[in-house]
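SAMPLE LOG
Freezer: B-3
Tube label: C17
Construct: single chain, 325 aa
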Amino acid sequence: MSTTNYPSAMPQNDPPRKDYKNLVIGLLAAGFLGTWGYVLYNNNKQDQVQQQQQTQIAKVTDEKGQIQKNFDDALVRLDSLTGTNNKLQSELSDRNSDIAKKKAEIRSILHKSNATSAELAKAKSLINDLNGKITDLEKQVSDLTTANTQLTADKTQLTADKDKLTQDLQTSTATNQDLSKKVDIASTLNASNITITPMHSKKDGQEKMTTNAKKVDKLVIAFDVDNRIATTGPTDVYVCITAPDGKPVSVPSLGSGTFTTRDEGDKPYTAKVGVDFESGKKKSVQFAWKQDTPFERGIYSIQIYHNGYKIGEGTKELKKGGIFG
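STRUCTURE (predicted):
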Protein backbone atom coordinates (compact mmCIF):
# COMPACT_ATOMS: atom_id res chain seq x y z
CA MET A 1 0.00 0.00 0.00
CA SER A 2 1.48 3.33 -0.93
CA THR A 3 1.04 6.59 0.92
CA THR A 4 1.17 10.14 -0.33
CA ASN A 5 0.80 13.63 1.01
CA TYR A 6 -1.45 14.81 -1.75
CA PRO A 7 -5.16 14.82 -1.41
CA SER A 8 -7.05 12.39 -3.35
CA ALA A 9 -9.35 13.53 -5.97
CA MET A 10 -11.87 10.88 -4.97
CA PRO A 11 -14.51 11.92 -2.36
CA GLN A 12 -14.16 10.45 1.15
CA ASN A 13 -17.10 9.04 3.19
CA ASP A 14 -17.11 11.26 6.56
CA PRO A 15 -19.68 10.45 9.31
CA PRO A 16 -22.76 12.86 9.34
CA ARG A 17 -22.89 15.72 12.00
CA LYS A 18 -25.87 15.89 14.50
CA ASP A 19 -28.07 19.07 14.48
CA TYR A 20 -28.67 20.35 18.16
CA LYS A 21 -30.37 23.61 17.25
CA ASN A 22 -33.91 22.38 17.58
CA LEU A 23 -33.09 20.69 20.85
CA VAL A 24 -31.63 23.86 22.27
CA ILE A 25 -34.61 25.85 21.11
CA GLY A 26 -36.96 23.31 22.69
CA LEU A 27 -35.07 23.36 25.94
CA LEU A 28 -35.08 27.13 26.02
CA ALA A 29 -38.78 27.20 25.27
CA ALA A 30 -39.48 24.68 28.01
CA GLY A 31 -37.38 26.65 30.44
CA PHE A 32 -39.09 29.87 29.52
CA LEU A 33 -42.50 28.27 29.89
CA GLY A 34 -41.48 26.76 33.21
CA THR A 35 -40.17 30.06 34.44
CA TRP A 36 -43.30 31.86 33.31
CA GLY A 37 -45.44 29.20 34.90
CA TYR A 38 -43.52 29.55 38.13
CA VAL A 39 -43.90 33.30 37.95
CA LEU A 40 -47.62 32.91 37.35
CA TYR A 41 -47.89 30.36 40.16
CA ASN A 42 -45.88 32.50 42.50
CA ASN A 43 -47.93 35.58 41.68
CA ASN A 44 -51.11 33.60 42.18
CA LYS A 45 -49.79 32.29 45.47
CA GLN A 46 -48.92 35.80 46.60
CA ASP A 47 -52.38 36.99 45.60
CA GLN A 48 -53.92 34.22 47.70
CA VAL A 49 -51.69 35.05 50.66
CA GLN A 50 -52.42 38.73 50.25
CA GLN A 51 -56.14 38.03 49.99
CA GLN A 52 -55.97 35.86 53.10
CA GLN A 53 -54.08 38.60 54.92
CA GLN A 54 -56.63 41.19 53.81
CA THR A 55 -59.43 38.89 54.93
CA GLN A 56 -57.67 38.37 58.25
CA ILE A 57 -57.12 42.10 58.60
CA ALA A 58 -60.77 42.76 57.80
CA LYS A 59 -61.79 40.10 60.31
CA VAL A 60 -59.52 41.55 62.97
CA THR A 61 -60.76 45.05 62.15
CA ASP A 62 -64.40 43.95 62.43
CA GLU A 63 -63.63 42.07 65.62
CA LYS A 64 -61.83 45.09 67.02
CA GLY A 65 -64.75 47.33 66.03
CA GLN A 66 -67.19 44.96 67.75
CA ILE A 67 -64.98 44.87 70.84
CA GLN A 68 -64.84 48.68 70.79
CA LYS A 69 -68.63 48.81 70.52
CA ASN A 70 -69.01 46.36 73.40
CA PHE A 71 -66.61 48.44 75.46
CA ASP A 72 -68.47 51.66 74.62
CA ASP A 73 -71.78 50.00 75.54
CA ALA A 74 -70.29 48.86 78.83
CA LEU A 75 -69.10 52.41 79.57
CA VAL A 76 -72.56 53.78 78.76
CA ARG A 77 -74.10 51.31 81.18
CA LEU A 78 -71.55 52.21 83.81
CA ASP A 79 -72.08 55.95 83.35
CA SER A 80 -75.84 55.42 83.48
CA LEU A 81 -75.53 53.48 86.70
CA THR A 82 -73.23 55.94 88.41
CA GLY A 83 -75.41 58.83 87.34
CA THR A 84 -78.69 57.18 88.33
CA ASN A 85 -78.16 56.72 92.02
CA ASN A 86 -75.80 58.80 94.13
CA LYS A 87 -75.86 56.18 96.83
CA LEU A 88 -74.14 53.84 94.39
CA GLN A 89 -71.03 56.05 94.53
CA SER A 90 -70.22 54.93 98.05
CA GLU A 91 -70.74 51.29 97.13
CA LEU A 92 -68.73 51.75 93.93
CA SER A 93 -65.75 53.31 95.66
CA ASP A 94 -64.25 49.94 96.63
CA ARG A 95 -64.45 48.76 93.01
CA ASN A 96 -63.36 51.91 91.26
CA SER A 97 -59.67 50.98 91.29
CA ASP A 98 -60.24 47.58 89.66
CA ILE A 99 -62.74 48.96 87.14
CA ALA A 100 -60.41 51.85 86.24
CA LYS A 101 -57.55 49.40 85.72
CA LYS A 102 -59.64 47.23 83.40
CA LYS A 103 -60.88 50.25 81.45
CA ALA A 104 -57.30 51.49 80.97
CA GLU A 105 -56.11 48.05 79.84
CA ILE A 106 -59.00 47.70 77.38
CA ARG A 107 -58.36 51.17 75.94
CA SER A 108 -54.67 50.37 75.60
CA ILE A 109 -55.44 47.29 73.50
CA LEU A 110 -58.08 49.01 71.37
CA HIS A 111 -55.79 51.93 70.64
CA LYS A 112 -53.21 49.60 69.11
CA SER A 113 -53.32 49.63 65.32
CA ASN A 114 -51.72 46.17 65.14
CA ALA A 115 -53.42 44.47 68.07
CA THR A 116 -52.93 40.73 68.02
CA SER A 117 -55.65 38.13 68.30
CA ALA A 118 -54.38 37.26 71.78
CA GLU A 119 -54.64 40.89 72.89
CA LEU A 120 -58.14 41.20 71.41
CA ALA A 121 -59.12 38.00 73.19
CA LYS A 122 -57.81 39.49 76.43
CA ALA A 123 -59.82 42.67 75.74
CA LYS A 124 -62.91 40.49 75.26
CA SER A 125 -62.25 38.77 78.57
CA LEU A 126 -61.76 42.08 80.34
CA ILE A 127 -64.97 43.47 78.83
CA ASN A 128 -66.85 40.34 79.90
CA ASP A 129 -65.48 40.78 83.41
CA LEU A 130 -66.40 44.48 83.33
CA ASN A 131 -69.92 43.65 82.13
CA GLY A 132 -70.20 41.12 84.95
CA LYS A 133 -69.37 43.81 87.50
CA ILE A 134 -71.78 46.19 85.79
CA THR A 135 -74.51 43.53 85.91
CA ASP A 136 -73.92 43.18 89.65
CA LEU A 137 -74.16 46.95 90.01
CA GLU A 138 -77.35 46.97 87.92
CA LYS A 139 -78.85 44.40 90.25
CA GLN A 140 -77.85 46.49 93.25
CA VAL A 141 -79.37 49.58 91.64
CA SER A 142 -82.52 47.60 90.88
CA ASP A 143 -82.66 46.38 94.47
CA LEU A 144 -82.04 49.90 95.76
CA THR A 145 -84.66 51.30 93.40
CA THR A 146 -87.15 48.69 94.56
CA ALA A 147 -86.28 49.45 98.17
CA ASN A 148 -86.56 53.20 97.54
CA THR A 149 -89.89 52.68 95.81
CA GLN A 150 -91.12 50.64 98.75
CA LEU A 151 -89.81 53.21 101.21
CA THR A 152 -91.51 55.96 99.23
CA ALA A 153 -94.75 53.99 99.21
CA ASP A 154 -94.40 53.29 102.93
CA LYS A 155 -93.66 56.96 103.59
CA THR A 156 -96.67 57.98 101.52
CA GLN A 157 -98.86 55.52 103.41
CA LEU A 158 -97.44 56.62 106.76
CA THR A 159 -98.00 60.25 105.82
CA ALA A 160 -101.58 59.44 104.83
CA ASP A 161 -102.06 57.49 108.06
CA LYS A 162 -100.54 60.35 110.04
CA ASP A 163 -102.79 62.88 108.30
CA LYS A 164 -105.81 60.69 109.01
CA LEU A 165 -104.76 60.20 112.62
CA THR A 166 -104.19 63.95 112.94
CA GLN A 167 -107.59 64.62 111.41
CA ASP A 168 -109.19 61.98 113.62
CA LEU A 169 -107.38 63.42 116.62
CA GLN A 170 -108.54 66.92 115.74
CA THR A 171 -112.08 65.62 115.25
CA SER A 172 -111.83 63.63 118.45
CA THR A 173 -110.36 66.62 120.28
CA ALA A 174 -113.11 68.87 118.95
CA THR A 175 -115.69 66.25 119.89
CA ASN A 176 -114.14 65.82 123.31
CA GLN A 177 -114.00 69.56 123.77
CA ASP A 178 -117.62 69.81 122.70
CA LEU A 179 -118.57 66.95 125.01
CA SER A 180 -116.50 68.44 127.80
CA LYS A 181 -118.17 71.76 127.28
CA LYS A 182 -121.58 70.11 127.33
CA VAL A 183 -120.66 68.15 130.44
CA ASP A 184 -119.20 71.31 131.94
CA ILE A 185 -122.35 73.23 131.21
CA ALA A 186 -124.56 70.37 132.29
CA SER A 187 -122.63 70.03 135.58
CA THR A 188 -123.18 73.70 136.42
CA LEU A 189 -125.39 74.09 139.49
CA ASN A 190 -128.90 75.45 139.23
CA ALA A 191 -129.98 78.14 141.70
CA SER A 192 -133.58 78.52 142.84
CA ASN A 193 -135.69 79.99 145.65
CA ILE A 194 -133.47 83.06 145.85
CA THR A 195 -134.30 85.40 148.74
CA ILE A 196 -132.67 88.65 149.87
CA THR A 197 -133.59 89.69 153.41
CA PRO A 198 -132.39 93.03 154.91
CA MET A 199 -131.85 92.62 158.66
CA HIS A 200 -131.53 95.05 161.58
CA SER A 201 -129.75 94.00 164.77
CA LYS A 202 -131.18 95.41 168.03
CA LYS A 203 -129.18 96.33 171.08
CA ASP A 204 -130.46 93.26 172.90
CA GLY A 205 -129.01 91.04 170.18
CA GLN A 206 -132.28 90.24 168.48
CA GLU A 207 -132.67 90.68 164.70
CA LYS A 208 -135.64 91.69 162.65
CA MET A 209 -136.32 92.23 158.98
CA THR A 210 -136.48 95.82 157.77
CA THR A 211 -136.51 97.70 154.47
CA ASN A 212 -135.36 100.96 156.07
CA ALA A 213 -132.00 101.60 154.48
CA LYS A 214 -130.70 103.43 157.56
CA LYS A 215 -131.49 100.48 159.83
CA VAL A 216 -130.17 97.70 157.61
CA ASP A 217 -127.04 96.13 159.07
CA LYS A 218 -126.72 93.23 156.67
CA LEU A 219 -128.31 91.44 153.75
CA VAL A 220 -129.07 87.77 154.29
CA ILE A 221 -128.99 86.00 150.94
CA ALA A 222 -130.37 82.47 150.67
CA PHE A 223 -130.93 80.09 147.76
CA ASP A 224 -131.05 76.42 146.85
CA VAL A 225 -128.66 74.66 144.42
CA ASP A 226 -129.03 71.31 142.74
CA ASN A 227 -127.77 69.26 139.79
CA ARG A 228 -128.19 65.59 138.88
CA ILE A 229 -124.83 65.02 137.18
CA ALA A 230 -122.54 67.43 139.05
CA THR A 231 -119.77 65.70 140.99
CA THR A 232 -120.20 65.39 144.71
CA GLY A 233 -117.74 67.55 146.64
CA PRO A 234 -116.90 71.09 147.64
CA THR A 235 -117.41 73.85 145.10
CA ASP A 236 -117.60 77.63 145.08
CA VAL A 237 -120.38 79.96 144.08
CA TYR A 238 -119.84 83.69 143.58
CA VAL A 239 -122.31 86.32 144.73
CA CYS A 240 -122.17 89.68 142.97
CA ILE A 241 -124.05 92.57 144.61
CA THR A 242 -124.65 95.77 142.68
CA ALA A 243 -125.50 98.92 144.69
CA PRO A 244 -128.32 101.31 143.73
CA ASP A 245 -125.75 103.63 142.08
CA GLY A 246 -124.87 100.79 139.61
CA LYS A 247 -121.43 100.12 141.09
CA PRO A 248 -120.42 96.63 142.19
CA VAL A 249 -120.14 96.14 145.93
CA SER A 250 -116.59 94.98 146.53
CA VAL A 251 -114.70 95.13 149.80
CA PRO A 252 -111.39 93.23 149.50
CA SER A 253 -110.88 93.26 153.27
CA LEU A 254 -114.14 91.33 153.59
CA GLY A 255 -113.18 88.74 150.94
CA SER A 256 -114.27 90.43 147.73
CA GLY A 257 -112.25 89.86 144.56
CA THR A 258 -112.44 89.10 140.81
CA PHE A 259 -113.35 85.94 138.91
CA THR A 260 -113.66 84.95 135.24
CA THR A 261 -117.05 84.42 133.66
CA ARG A 262 -117.79 82.46 130.48
CA ASP A 263 -119.60 85.29 128.70
CA GLU A 264 -118.62 88.55 130.42
CA GLY A 265 -114.89 88.14 130.99
CA ASP A 266 -113.45 89.13 134.35
CA LYS A 267 -116.01 90.35 136.86
CA PRO A 268 -115.72 91.61 140.46
CA TYR A 269 -117.57 89.56 143.03
CA THR A 270 -118.79 90.55 146.46
CA ALA A 271 -118.46 87.23 148.23
CA LYS A 272 -117.26 83.71 147.43
CA VAL A 273 -119.37 81.09 149.15
CA GLY A 274 -118.22 77.52 149.60
CA VAL A 275 -120.81 74.81 149.08
CA ASP A 276 -120.45 71.18 150.13
CA PHE A 277 -122.49 69.77 147.29
CA GLU A 278 -123.96 66.27 147.03
CA SER A 279 -124.84 65.03 143.54
CA GLY A 280 -128.53 64.63 142.85
CA LYS A 281 -129.62 66.41 146.02
CA LYS A 282 -130.80 69.95 146.69
CA LYS A 283 -128.54 71.99 148.89
CA SER A 284 -129.63 75.12 150.78
CA VAL A 285 -127.08 77.93 150.88
CA GLN A 286 -127.23 81.02 153.08
CA PHE A 287 -124.78 83.76 153.94
CA ALA A 288 -124.96 87.30 155.34
CA TRP A 289 -123.32 90.28 153.74
CA LYS A 290 -122.38 92.93 156.28
CA GLN A 291 -120.39 95.78 154.84
CA ASP A 292 -118.28 98.47 156.50
CA THR A 293 -120.34 101.36 155.00
CA PRO A 294 -124.06 102.20 155.39
CA PHE A 295 -126.48 100.69 152.92
CA GLU A 296 -128.02 103.13 150.46
CA ARG A 297 -131.59 103.64 149.49
CA GLY A 298 -132.59 102.04 146.21
CA ILE A 299 -132.55 98.68 144.51
CA TYR A 300 -129.79 96.18 145.20
CA SER A 301 -129.22 93.58 142.50
CA ILE A 302 -127.82 90.16 143.38
CA GLN A 303 -126.33 87.74 140.80
CA ILE A 304 -125.17 84.21 141.59
CA TYR A 305 -122.45 82.48 139.48
CA HIS A 306 -121.14 78.96 139.35
CA ASN A 307 -118.59 77.49 136.96
CA GLY A 308 -118.38 80.88 135.21
CA TYR A 309 -122.09 80.89 134.38
CA LYS A 310 -124.81 83.01 135.92
CA ILE A 311 -127.23 80.59 137.61
CA GLY A 312 -129.64 82.99 139.34
CA GLU A 313 -130.42 86.59 140.25
CA GLY A 314 -132.73 88.67 142.40
CA THR A 315 -133.34 92.23 143.59
CA LYS A 316 -134.22 93.95 146.83
CA GLU A 317 -135.24 97.57 147.36
CA LEU A 318 -134.23 99.47 150.50
CA LYS A 319 -136.44 102.43 151.26
CA LYS A 320 -136.43 105.63 153.20
CA GLY A 321 -137.93 104.85 156.59
CA GLY A 322 -140.47 106.85 158.72
CA ILE A 323 -141.55 110.45 158.39
CA PHE A 324 -138.06 111.70 159.00
CA GLY A 325 -136.33 108.67 157.50
